[in-house]
Amino acid sequence: xxxxxxxxxxxxxxxxxxxxxxxxxxxxxxxxxxxxxxxxxxxxxxxxxxxxxxxxxxxxxxxxxxxxxxxxxxxxxxxxxxxxxxxxxxxxxxxxxxxxxxxxxxxxxxxxxxxxxxx
Length: 119
Known about the structure:
CATH superfamily: Rhodanese-like domain
CATH class: Alpha Beta
CATH architecture: 3-Layer(aba) Sandwich
CATH topology: Oxidized Rhodanese, domain 1
């Protein structure tokens, strides 16, 4: 079933890395679709999804940084393995974001599927 036609059971949608890649690639030049990396800056430097924005979910200013984002854009959120991503999407839902997608398995699963990464 298409991502946009699925009904959300919670305030965000879980999505497999390959589906997230397909959607992000299709909307490569559309600023309404954003990969959001919630890992540490050190993890981001090792590798990340192309054009991903970085906001460390464990930083004291995370919620303040969320408030600066457009709540109507489509955010594809990921961390290393999934736990921090879950925390981030729940906070984003609490802050009123409309289109939140949690990449299942995070960056580790993204890489295991041999999807492109940027360094």
